[in-house]
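For the sake of transparency, this paper describes our internal protein records without simplification. The tokens are whole numbers drawn from a learned vocabulary of local backbone shapes. One such record is reproduced below, unchanged from the form in which we store it.

. . .
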Amino acid sequence: MKRQFLLAAAIALSSFAMAQSTPRFGVRGGITSSGMQGDAVKSLNGIIDYSNGMVTTATHTGFFGGVYAGIPVSDNVSIEPALYYTQKGYALQGDFNLKGAEFLGANAKAQLNANYIDLPVVVKGNFGGFQVFAGPQVSYLLNADLHSSAGVLGFNLLNSHKDATSQFNRVDAALTGGIGYRFANGLNVTASYDHGLSKVDANKNFDAYNRSFKVGLGFDF
């Protein structure tokens, strides 16, 4: 865990040392659409009992926001470290039993809400305003909770929250990349994809990985 943070910090610090002109700083925020690939359902097996494997996953919509620095290393290339608060997670729906409410076998839903601090450090190419970027990202899980609900014939029979933080690794490593456009006044738009490389399951028993799309609006100061 320490090695991953130190590596990201070293890349960011070396970028300042390589800078050929004054860095730009900015703020960025937007929406996320996240999920998990692999044995995502099994990663919550300590909270949910599954029956007949009739469970499907869906994406989770959230928010991200934070600060970044644009550090030029040539006329068209810069390094951009950033620090974002990011909401991630996924949703489950289908035939499963919630512990303590085993009689609810249908119309049940569960949504994982996970809050992370993301530290991406990307290399960015700028071509007349159009930008492409890619690089590593280290994330730290602040907390995660599972919101469970179930109903029959329009009646809500269950609505509960359970702390799921212990089910997941605190640190996640990923690759991130995307495209963007920067206007002359400093306003910029970006679209990126985060591809998790670390198993999110705390015991590393299941091959479940974070996946996330981000669309953001930023401004350079």
Notes: The chain has a mean pLDDT of 82.
